[in-house]
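Hey team,

Sharing the TolC family protein run so nobody has to redo it. Sequence (431 residues) first:
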Amino acid sequence: MIKIQILAILFCILPVGMQAQNTLSLSQAIEMGLQNNYDLKITRNAEKISSINNTWGNTGALPTISFSTSLSEGFNYNDTENYRTEMISPELGLNWVLFDGFSARITKKKYEELENLSKGNTAILVENTIQEIVSAYNNCIVQQELVKVYAELMNLSEDRYNRELHAKDLGANTTYNTLLAKTSWLEDKSTYLQQKVEFENSIRTLNYALGIKDNKMWELTSGIKSDLPDYTLSDLTTKLLSNNTTLKNQYINQSLLAKETALAKSNYLPSLNINGGVSHTNRNVYYSKNSINDSKSNYSDVNIGLNLSYTIFNGGQRKRSVQIAKIEEESAVVETDQMKHSLQNQLLQIFSTYEVQKDLVLLANEREDAAKLNMDMAEEKLKTGAIDSFDFRDIQINYLNAAIQKLNAIYNVVESQTDLARITGGIINEF
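Structure output:
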């Protein structure tokens, strides 16, 4: 009978849908999310497009070879004799820009930078996705632990109510104390049921981050990281300036604008291209009355030429293009400095928050241990009548608040640690 009651209590404590579930670790969640994320799929396609564009054939450096042919047929009617003319003229043409102010070489480097920028955008989205999944997963663990805390309080309140009810039946207790214990138990049970819903909603939030459409419940196998390493601000700043993905992308943008300036300057140089072609014509004439006069002729033509062009004056358009390109390049340098300043400021805030939250975790642990010990001692005192129900209820609530603060403190410090890994460019390697 006792075993059956224990199993029933365990069944009630477990959240709805937790029985016979699929297990999910944090690493599995990250892998699943990176495969299913909608925005990441789109960004990866953009990266493929930038890779396809990064070819010499897309810069105009390679020759253009074309083929064409024409077929014509004519009829001539006169007083002596009618005849029909057939003509076929295939032609092969070549056009090749030999020199265009180094624009092809500059454009190729530009496409390389665009491909790197696309990879950088993918990396940023990967980092954001990992951070979102880690946060959602840790929140699920916190909500699950809160379910256990509320279940513990609910069971304690139920035991207290049963004792008060039994004492009342024996005539050793008042109806007032019994109703007070019942009210506390019902209140704790209501809070427990609400927390179960909070946990289930956190799982749904995690499923959305993983790109899972089904209302799937998981058994989480990874706990919240308990190691809280010590960082130095100087090391974190060095990592930020060298590894931050957003800053790397800004450097690429700056390089792209430098390429635009070089392209604008290349318009001051002449352009040289070669063109040529080979054509062949077959001409056949057929007479309607006297086939002896039929004739066939064919001839070929080969041509090749060089074309040198240089723009002497175009209303100052080249000068204006260079000036605008230089101004935009200077603006990019200012934006880079601003981004560095902003990121360093964010790093300082996150680092300070992390250091404080580490101390808060230690304090929260001590407070929960003290509150737990106090509640255990108070339960014994309640049984002996050393304290009344009001005092015991206050001690219960104090333990509940201490447990909640501990879980929140752990969650907050891990969030700050993840933020540090994200801003210093190490979140992909870490997770």
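The two ends are 47 Å apart (CA to CA).

Ping me if you want the raw files.
A.
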